[in-house]
Write a structure and sequence with these properties.
Elements: H1 4-13, H2 19-28, E1 32-33, H3 38-43, E2 48-49, E3 53-57, H4 64-77, E4 82-87, H5 94-103, H6 118-127, E5 129-133, H7 137-152, E6 157-158, E7 161-169, H8 171-175, H9 186-204, E8 207-212, E9 214-218, E10 221-224, H10 227-231, E11 236-242, E12 248-255, E13 264-268
Parallel strand pairs: 3-8, 3-11, 4-5, 4-7, 7-8
Antiparallel strand pairs: 1-2, 6-7, 9-10, 11-12, 12-13
Helix pairs in contact: 4-5, 5-6, 7-9
């Protein structure tokens, strides 16, 4: 017979889960982190699901980064945990974060948060956001490895709060260059990134949020980048479009583990 240590080692290596175990995992561990954009949260059934990878895809200037910044600001302001924000194109904007928290402090639900001076509110939020610049696939591997080691050692925290949200804006900026022929093992590296992200999400109950750009699909149509191999990776996939010369955006569900595809919601991003 196996002892308790042997069983726990087997669990870490992978095993079959029965229905009761899956239900317990979903109801007790997999909660939602609200993005702070009410229509997006409603569309997603509550927000960014912990333990899962959510992808936001859309053309340039469609609002993808705005959703990332809103999500980071909302989670930090509500003191739900620490946010790890991997910035691949210098898109992280502290001034935009300030605009978000000053304009919606009454929605954060953190008792006394809106009564704090503006500077104190901003510093409180920024202390809970760890921003790292990552400009190539090798730097991404290094940062993800360091994050995993730190999570295992319980070192990535702020005042007792652990990392609960990992954002990569954008994942396609790092993966597209390696699958275009320059790197023979590019697709294998892409799948390795996918496996690491999903393992981090599952093992440490993180919400992982990534952005992806669009490429031509022929006949004037567009589709998410990174091809069919990546298509199966996200648990949830939203496509964002923006009305011409407007701040009004539309989010459409392309893929969801619990909800029907094709559902839409409109939201407004700051000018």
């Amino acid at each position: 017979m196996m002892n308790e240590d042997q069983r726990s080692t087997g669990d870490q290596c992978g095993r079959f889960w029965n229905g009761i175990e899956l239900l317990k995992d979903a109801t007790e561990k997999k909660h939602f982190l609200p993005t702070g954009l009410e229509s997006i949260d409603t569309l997603l059934g509550g927000g960014l699901r912990q333990g899962q990878l959510t992808e936001i895809t859309g053309p340039s200037s469609s609002g993808k980064t705005q959703i990332c910044l809103h999500s980071a600001s909302n989670v930090a302001a509500k003191q739900m945990g620490v946010v790890m924000y991997l910035d691949t194109s210098n898109s992280f904007s502290p001034s935009r974060v300030a605009t978000i928290i000053y304009g919606a402090s009454d929605q954060f639900g953190q008792r006394g948060f809106e009564l704090q001076p503006k500077d104190a509110r901003f510093k409180s939020v920024m202390r809970s956001i760890i921003c790292e610049s990552v400009f190539d696939i090798f730097a991404l591997f290094e940062v993800l490895h360091q994050l995993e080691v730190s999570l295992l050692n319980d070192k990535v925290n702020n005042g007792g709060s652990k990392v609960c949200l990992l954002i990569i804006d954008s994942i396609s900026s790092l993966l597209a260059p390696i699958i275009g022929g320059k790197y023979p093992q590019g697709r294998s590296m892409m799948i390795t990134v996918a496996m690491i992200l999903k393992k981090l999400a599952n093992d440490h109950n993180l919400s992982v949020l990534v952005t992806n750009h669009m490429v031509s699909a022929g006949n004037g149509a567009v589709k998410p980048a990174l091809g069919e191999s990546w298509k199966a990776v996200p648990h949830v996939r939203l496509v964002i479009s923006r009305e011409c010369e407007s701040n009004i955006c539309t989010a459409t569900v392309l893929k969801h583990t619990l909800l029907a595809s094709g559902r839409t919601a409109k939201f407004v991003v700051p000018s």
